[in-house]
Amino acid sequence: MKKLPSTKIIILSLFLGLITGSILTKSSTVFGFNVYEIVDVFGQVFLNALKMIVIPLIMSSLIYNIAKFENVEGLSLISIKTVLFYILSSFAAILIGITIVNLVSPGLSEGIGAGSLLGLNNKSEIDLIINSQNEYTLSSFFLKIFSGNIFTSIASGNMLFIILFSILIGISIRSIKSKSMDVIKDFWEGTYLIFIKIMYLILFFTPFGIFFLVTKASMSFEPESYVILSKFFLTVISSLMIHMFVFYSLILMIFKVNVIKHFKGVSQALLVAFSTSSSVATIPVTSRCLIEKLSYKEDKVNFIIPIGATINMDGTALFECVVVIFIAQLYGIDLSFIEQLLILLLALITSIGVAGIPSASFVAIIVILGAVGLPFEAVGIIIGIDRLLDMLRTSVNVYGDTCCVSIVAK
């Protein structure tokens, strides 16, 4: 199952869900069954399927991607420059996203959380979340990372500990010079590929998941809710455009690269990235544009672009931060500096592990929501409008890869 549902099918599911939800009410029945309860159950099944693979996918992804790199002593200068560029550009993208979402506050309506307009009106749950946020301190942050018991932390879904533990395993595998490590590397590679396959299987059912989630949400929508979703939509788009056209243009100009010529040269790759929502699938086109149209050396292009398709997820990292802070705003929660710093760090780490496959960023979003004590329910609303945003952020990711080639070549 290599081919995922097309954009047309995704959008059709979204509109069918909106129409169905606007026609029906929470008390509507079909053959004696309550429709709201039915769509709620199937929507939760789709979300639970995503949550099911969070821990094994993140663990295997981090361990495999860290372990497969050569030893630090063997890294060439181009490798260091490439990885450093990708980390710094992702960091800049996250800062842009956090700044814009805090300025616009798309999750607030007249200064208060707009969650009730989107059907997120469980007051007892909201009070519990707010109380837990008030108890979030610097000491609790570090104690959650260094919780001690490996198996208890994995079983309880302590993602901070799991991420740290996975990084340590990956570094250890890479640093041990023994033939037996080849077997370990093969094991984690196989595990990673298995869960990528499972991820594709789950994403194959995205149209059905979107239909049920959007139908449920639209049954509870107030008219003002469409304003809230539009603000969120525009917040993400404006943040991505600022990063793509302002940040990258400044970087290219600093290194004396012709911005317009560069953009025209890679425009075909950007269109493919936009249509496929996959930076991995775009690799051949991206490489051809850089080699044939912009005359960059083939060896550099073939080294940088595949790495970028795996670890350079600027648009994804930006999107993750905006979504998490937006959800906090919906619940009327004012995230502290420590919590926003945690979101920044987790977005930087988890964006590397989404492997360039469509909509897999929601796995990373669930990780971050769990780390800062926010519920997953609102993710269902965002999934319904995500496909176009996914196409845009993939284009940003691929454009970042091409900029890296230009800058490293200088």
Report on this model:
The protein has 410 residues and is mostly helical. It has one domain (7-409): Proton glutamate symport protein. The protein contains 19 helices and four strands. The strands form two sheets. A two-stranded antiparallel sheet has the order 1-2. The chain has a two-stranded antiparallel sheet with strand order 3-4. Strand 3 (108-109) and strand 4 (112-113) form a beta hairpin. Helix 1 runs parallel beside helix 10 (206-220). The radius of gyration is 21 Å and the shape is globular. The two termini are 41 Å apart. Mean pLDDT is 79; it is low at 71-75.
Q: What attributes characterize this protein structure?
A:
410 residues; 2% strand; mainly alpha; single chain; globular; Proton glutamate symport protein
List the helices and strands and how they pair.
Blueprint (H helix, E strand, L loop, with lengths): L6 H17 L5 E2 L2 E2 H18 L1 H14 L9 H28 L3 E2 L2 E2 L9 H12 L3 H8 L4 H6 L3 H17 L4 H25 L1 H15 L4 H30 L4 H18 L6 H11 L4 H14 L2 H17 L6 H14 L10 H11 L7 H5 L2 H24 L1
Antiparallel strand pairs: 1-2, 3-4
